[in-house]
Structure to design on (319 residues):
């Protein structure tokens, strides 16, 4: 059977990573018109044929999240109506993932709702990275290729040649991923326990494990307002840590986040480019940004040629 033509398109939420992915695949982004009417409605039109093509839509769900999501849904619908043979959504950051279960009465499960919306719109498969909970993959009735940046973050911390490292999980929920990172770095694991009095607020109550005299590596799936992770750094220093590095796959950086990172008593902060971050602001805030475009490019290439995606990283460390 003749291999379907690969057609790569990007939404407007994170064009730089899409361009880097296209370059890695030795291709160019397809021609697409995306603009907004005066009332905020989104208009999408493919300016080249996608009939019979395998379409990959790259769109991270970052601020403004609802606009980015609606734009992606419309891109899917337009591709489907233009007779694309297969549509894969490449979503570096999957929004609404923190609401993956009901924690209180009368709450929604929006992680499932977004999965339903993407599927009903016409997505045939999903490629994403470091979901807030790996179980979100089960919300989809189409294949999900779940990538992780743990290896990339581990390589970065190895390059710093730090002594007496310990990986610290920011909470019990991230303990599994943090354990895998500690194995990659060949060091021990500690766990912080936190309570949440309000959304986007957290207080560190206990630290389980030895951090005294250690350089602590605190890595979460995302940094949003940075309040929790900066408070955690302070708590670790009070427990005798000699230094603290912060890291995350998704640098959301809402509200006062950049200022908090800049003023925090930390040795460094690293995130990936799943969300577009202004280079100057990142530099001024002391934030290092690593690229995950090569991993996404390899995943797209393997999906297109029906090869294994898990071979791109050690399956032992998948989450």
């Amino acid at each position: 059977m003749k291999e379907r033509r690969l057609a790569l398109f990007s939404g407007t939420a994170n064009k730089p990573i899409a361009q880097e992915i296209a370059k890695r695949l030795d291709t160019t982004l397809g021609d697409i018109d995306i603009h907004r009417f005066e009332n905020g409605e989104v208009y999408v039109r493919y300016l080249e044929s996608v009939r019979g093509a395998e379409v990959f839509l790259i769109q991270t769900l970052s601020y403004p999240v609802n606009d980015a999501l609606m734009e992606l849904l419309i891109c899917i619908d337009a591709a489907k109506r233009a007779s694309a043979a297969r549509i894969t959504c490449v979503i570096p950051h999957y929004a609404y993932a923190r609401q993956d279960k009901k924690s209180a009465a009368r709450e929604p499960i929006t992680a499932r709702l977004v999965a339903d919306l993407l599927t009903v719109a016409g997505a045939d498969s999903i490629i994403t990275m470091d979901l807030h909970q790996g179980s979100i993959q089960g919300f989809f009735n189409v294949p999900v290729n779940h990538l992780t940046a743990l290896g990339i973050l581990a390589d970065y911390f190895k390059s710093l040649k730090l002594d007496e490292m310990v990986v610290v999980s920011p909470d019990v929920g991230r303990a599994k991923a943090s354990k895998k990172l500690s194995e990659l770095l060949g060091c021990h694991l500690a766990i912080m326990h936190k309570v949440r009095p309000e959304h986007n607020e957290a207080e560190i109550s206990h630290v389980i494990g030895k951090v005294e005299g250690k350089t602590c590596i605190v890595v979460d799936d995302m940094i949003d307002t940075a309040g929790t992770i900066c408070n955690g750094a302070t708590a670790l220093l009070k427990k005798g840590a000699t230094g603290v590095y912060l890291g995350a796959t998704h640098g959301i950086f809402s509200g006062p986040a950049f200022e908090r990172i800049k003023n925090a008593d930390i040795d460094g902060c690293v995130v990936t480019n799943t969300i577009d971050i202004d280079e100057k602001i990142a530099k001024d805030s002391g934030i290092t940004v690593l690229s995950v475009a090569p991993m996404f490019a390899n995943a797209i290439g393997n999906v297109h040629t029906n090869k294994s995606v898990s071979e791109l990283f050690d399956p032992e460390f998948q989450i």
Remarks:
- Confidence is low (pLDDT under 50) at residues 315-319.
